[in-house]
């Protein structure tokens, strides 16, 4: 039995008629989801101003056309038809996907053994290893790309180094301003990002499953292909997604290292908003890129679902 | 005979070698920047001709460089503080409240992590120009908010996830009101995440290029200034010196951020 | 080196983790077709020893022979042993059939032959028709059986089981104990079974090795361990035990006795007394070896007066704590409730405590 006289404040509060302001507080207190959204609202407001509104306008502008230095705001699909009919746009898109696709595959292939090493063979200072591997990713992207310009340049590290060593007679021209240069740089720049999902998926694998496979007669190689690799597929898919999507629209790397044959869709979009000054066309290309990204994103999502379902 | 590690996890020499090569390849390209920044030659090529610090001392007299640096610091500081405050509130709401459509909301929040920056850049540019807002450091800051918010939330979420709500309930039970509970119980628990988020978002904003590329007005940020200098090969040594300093500062900041951010999160 | 009779022979095996000594020179032999248990509290080294048999941990010193072959240089995937893991380790990306058939890949079998073998195993573990089920659709007991089938299908020389019943609830565990024992008889494979549950070890095993602190304390049959433990640790680990401080009394060469606190002098055959006259010993008696009666029992039965402290009714039996003169700690007594009217249940009543001398265990003092 509670002696209510000992709790004067609480009882008084409960009995007193609710004031106007207290009503809202009470409602917020009861409606959990409402409180949640209230807390989220400043963040959501920024996202609305910074992402949703711009996209609506971008979508609108993509239906406009350029007229001299101004826009003809009559809605039309002319830009989309141009993108569809003129082969240069398709070729550009294809090249963008090709370059970032190769970079993605290369990055995942190179990072997988490293992630495997840290997940299975590093026992002390795991955290230090993880930080060491991901550290470069957080530093200036521009400067990391610039570093590759220094390395691959006509008089860069490789050419001048090899010349000084007498390995080559004259500077190699294929290094800079090529698709290869873009692919190498993208793979290097995004490697630190690919490591994490790979590491997480490998770390999650129950060690007793690997022991069971060994116990049932599998040597290390067979065990890897029958157990480790299938179980780490969600990480491989996630890593591929996290590299492929952002690199498709990359601007800096092809701009600094791509040369005429290494330009990607991002450079073309920038051209429309810059020198060419055809903003509606730029908007259209951005929307088309977004649609592609959405489609690819859904494909990855589906793949992840399938992989998860098989492993659940 | 080794006396450590089970059969599965016993040392694997080829993998160890691979890991060493991986780290070397990861870091060496970046290390060429400081290497050549001390080279006494206008040309960035081998063989090295001699040691000098003149490219660094030359930086002192560059007025525009210092302006750009100051611009970047201003934007970075404001962006990191706003991002972290919003991140704390959002992360707490995400972990504490049952909300319909929460996972869709989180996905939306994380989108800028994946979607190419150029798309956000041009979209914001279109909005701002149609709205008649002149490009300035404020517009750059808005762009950076979008880029940095997911990182702040991603850094803070695990902190709040590992946080036992019964501790807040215990504090409330002991008679503390909501704000007091937040300050005395919640905030100290997530403090490492807050520090990590501040450092990380500052570094990202400080180093960000593509948003600034589209949204900068007359005041350039440091990466924009460097971009401008890259057109002139004779400026390369100075850019290298500048870059070395930026990289050094970024590495230190991010290392501290990561160290603090992961502290206590590792299961052992 | 190896004992020719033994199927598994463990010779002076040691294991260090850094400077920590997990196994201190263990030697033992396990016969073919035996159900052999390693029993001990967690951290006693039993799992480490099992994993050394499987090859997942190497031996820091010593050698393990299986069927006469030294195992040091045989990697785990080539050893003639298979294991049932504590977590069962069912592959989540494979269905039941592929899980069970996992180890058959190396044998040159057609798909039909493989499936036939799997179906036989599924019948054996009483899960017919489960082949196409997914791993995540299985209950704990089913996973346990599949782990068993997956190992047994390879007809190993030795099956290693690492606390396979630990994750199951009590009822299912008891049922699985019976099935496991029956299965082992049926297939005739040597089982090495790790458990911390003494009752489980007693129920299942032909022989048990009791381990503590990386050492093997005693290897014996369940009955041997229970009735004739060699040390106080073993005696208190398996079942309950009353310990009395005592002293050896030898009257010449023919007759001997021990003097136990509160129990007086208990005659003991000389061949069971290893220590000299006057040496201190521990006299141990299990609670159920005592009897409580209202009057002094007739005949030659040794008995002392006792006062009942507490009584607990447990259904099939009752537990009592009685106080006797000359001993501060109460004596635990357990007696079956053979009739509906239970005898001396009233706390505080004066009774007689009697015991049979041949149930007395004489141990060295710790």
Structural features:
heterotrimer, A: 312 residues, mainly alpha, MetI-like fold, 2 domains, two-stranded antiparallel sheet, 2 strands, 76% helix, 2% strand, globular, B: 268 residues
How do you describe this structure in short?
With 268 residues, chain B is an all-alpha fold.
Give a structural overview.
The complex is a heterotrimer of chains A (312), B (268) and C (366). By secondary structure, chain A is an all-alpha fold. Chain A has two domains: 8-61, no CATH class; 89-311, Orthogonal Bundle (MetI-like fold), CATH 1.10.3720. In chain A, 76% of the residues lie in helices and 2% in strands. Chain A is built from 15 helices and two strands. Chain A is globular. By secondary structure, chain B is mainly α. Chain B has one domain (66-262): Orthogonal Bundle (MetI-like fold), CATH 1.10.3720.10. Chain B has eleven helices and no strands. The radius of gyration of chain B is 23 Å and the shape is globular. With 366 residues, chain C is an alpha+beta fold. Chain C folds into two domains: 8-237, P-loop containing nucleotide triphosphate hydrolases (Rossmann fold, 3-Layer(aba) Sandwich); 242-246 and 279-363, RNA polymerase II/Efflux pump adaptor protein, barrel-sandwich hybrid domain (OB fold (Dihydrolipoamide Acetyltransferase, E2P), Beta Barrel), CATH 2.40.50. Chain C contains eight helices and 20 strands. Chain C has helices at residues 46-54, 96-100, 111-124, 140-152, 170-187, 198-204, 222-227, 232-237, and strands spanning 8-17, 20-30, 35-39, 61-66, 69-70, 81-84, 158-162, 190-195, 207-212, 215-220, 242-251, 255-260, 264-269, 280-285, 290-293, 303-313, 317-323, 331-336, 350-355, 361-363. The mean pLDDT of chain C is 88. Classes of the chains: A mainly alpha (312), B mainly alpha (268), C alpha+beta (366). The interface between A and B is large, with 91 and 93 residues.
């Amino acid at each position: 039995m509670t002696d209510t006289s000992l709790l004067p404040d609480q009882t008084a509060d409960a009995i007193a008629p609710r004031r106007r302001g207290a009503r809202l507080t009470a409602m917020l207190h009861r409606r959990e989801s409402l409180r949640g959204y209230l807390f989220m609202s400043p963040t959501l407001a920024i996202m609305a101003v910074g992402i949703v509104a711009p996209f609506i306008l971008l979508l609108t502008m993509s239906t406009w056309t350029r007229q001299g230095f101004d826009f003809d705001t009559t809605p039309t699909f002319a830009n989309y038809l141009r993108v569809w009919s003129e082969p240069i746009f398709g070729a550009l898109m294809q090249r963008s996907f090709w370059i970032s696709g190769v970079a993605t595959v290369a990055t995942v292939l190179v990072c997988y053994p490293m992630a495997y090493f840290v997940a299975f063979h590093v026992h002390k200072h795991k955290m230090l290893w993880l930080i060491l591997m991901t550290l470069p990713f957080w530093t200036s992207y521009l400067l990391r790309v610039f570093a590759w310009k220094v390395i691959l340049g006509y008089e860069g590290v490789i050419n001048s180094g090899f010349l000084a060593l007498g390995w080559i007679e004259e500077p190699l021209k294929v290094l800079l301003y090529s698709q290869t240069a873009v692919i190498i740089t993208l793979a290097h720049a995004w490697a630190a990002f690919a490591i994490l999902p790979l590491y997480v998926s490998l770390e999650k694998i129950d060690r007793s499953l690997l022991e069971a496979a060994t116990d049932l007669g599998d040597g290390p190689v067979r065990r890897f292909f029958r157990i480790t690799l299938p179980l780490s597929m969600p990480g491989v898919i996630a890593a591929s997604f996290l590299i492929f999507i952002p690199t498709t629209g990359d601007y800096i790397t092809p701009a600094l290292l791509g040369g005429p044959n290494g330009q990607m869709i991002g450079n073309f979009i920038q051209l429309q908003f810059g020198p060419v000054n055809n903003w509606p066309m730029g908007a259209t290309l951005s929307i088309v890129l977004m649609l592609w990204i959405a489609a690819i994103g859904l494909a990855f999502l589906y793949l992840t679902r399938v992989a998860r379902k098989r492993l659940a | 005979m080794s006396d450590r590690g089970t059969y599965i996890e016993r040392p694997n020499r080829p993998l160890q070698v691979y890991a060493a090569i991986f780290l070397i390849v990861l870091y060496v390209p970046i290390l060429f920047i400081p290497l050549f920044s001390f080279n006494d030659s206008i040309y960035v090529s081998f063989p090295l001709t001699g040691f000098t610090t003149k490219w660094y001392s030359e930086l002192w007299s560059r007025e525009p460089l210092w302006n750009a640096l100051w611009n970047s610091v201003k934007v970075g500081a404001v962006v990191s503080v706003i991002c972290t405050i919003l991140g704390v509130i959002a992360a707490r709401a995400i972990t504490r409240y049952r909300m319909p459509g929460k996972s869709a909301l989180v996905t939306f929040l994380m989108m800028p992590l994946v979607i190419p920056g150029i798309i956000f850049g041009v979209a914001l540019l279109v909005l701002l120009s149609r709205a008649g807002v002149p490009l300035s450091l404020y517009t750059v800051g808005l762009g950076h908010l979008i880029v940095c918010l997911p990182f702040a939330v991603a850094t803070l979420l695990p902190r709040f996830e590992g946080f036992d709500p019964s501790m807040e309930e215990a504090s409330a039970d002991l008679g503390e009101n909501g704000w007091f509970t937040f300050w005395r119980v919640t905030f100290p628990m997530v403090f490492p995440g807050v520090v990590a988020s501040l450092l990380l978002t500052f570094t990202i904003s400080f180093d960000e290029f593509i948003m600034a590329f589209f949204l900068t007005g007359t005041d350039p940020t440091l990466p924009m200034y460097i971009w401008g200098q890259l057109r002139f090969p004779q400026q390369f040594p100075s850019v290298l010196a500048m870059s070395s300093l930026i990289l050094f500062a970024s590495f230190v900041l991010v290392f501290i951020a990561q160290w603090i951010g992961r502290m206590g999160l590792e299961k052992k | 080196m190896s004992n020719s009779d033994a199927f598994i022979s463990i010779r002076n095996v040691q294991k260090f983790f850094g400077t920590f000594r997990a196994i201190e020179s263990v030697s033992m032999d396990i016969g073919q077709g035996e159900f052999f248990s390693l029993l001990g509290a967690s951290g006693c080294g039993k799992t480490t020893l099992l994993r050394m048999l499987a090859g997942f941990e190497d031996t820091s010193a010593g050698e393990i022979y299986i069927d006469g072959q030294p195992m040091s240089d045989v990697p785990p995937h080539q050893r003639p042993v298979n294991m049932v893991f504590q977590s069962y380790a069912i592959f989540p990306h494979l269905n039941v059939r592929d899980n069970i058939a996992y180890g058959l890949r190396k044998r040159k079998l057609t798909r039909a032959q493989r499936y036939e073998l799997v179906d036989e195993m599924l019948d054996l573990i009483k899960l017919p028709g489960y082949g196409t089920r997914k791993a995540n659709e299985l209950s704990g007991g089913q996973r346990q059986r599949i782990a068993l089938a997956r190992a047994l299908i390879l007809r190993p020389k030795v099956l290693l089981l690492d606390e396979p019943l630990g994750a199951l609830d009590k009822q299912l565990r008891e049922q699985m104990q019976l099935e496991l024992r029956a299965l082992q008889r049926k297939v005739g494979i040597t089982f090495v079974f790790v458990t911390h549950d003494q009752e489980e070890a007693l129920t299942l095993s032909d022989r048990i090795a009791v381990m503590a602190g990386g050492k093997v304390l005693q290897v014996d049959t369940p009955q041997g361990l229970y009735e004739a433990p060699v040390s106080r640790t073993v005696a208190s680990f398996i079942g309950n035990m009353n310990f009395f401080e005592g002293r050896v009394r030898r009257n010449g060469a023919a007759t001997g006795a021990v003097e136990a606190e509160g129990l007086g002098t208990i005659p003991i055959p000389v061949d069971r007394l290893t220590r000299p006259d006057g040496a201190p010993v521990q006299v141990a008696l299990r609670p159920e070896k005592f009897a409580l009666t209202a009057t002094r029992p007739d005949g030659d039965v040794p008995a002392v007066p006792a006062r009942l402290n507490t009584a607990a009714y447990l259904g099939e039996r009752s537990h009592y704590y009685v106080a006797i003169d000359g001993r501060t700690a109460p004596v635990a007594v357990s007696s079956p409730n053979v009739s509906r009217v239970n005898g001396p249940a009233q706390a505080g009543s004066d009774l007689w405590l009697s015991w049979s001398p041949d149930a007395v265990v004489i141990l060295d003092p710790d």
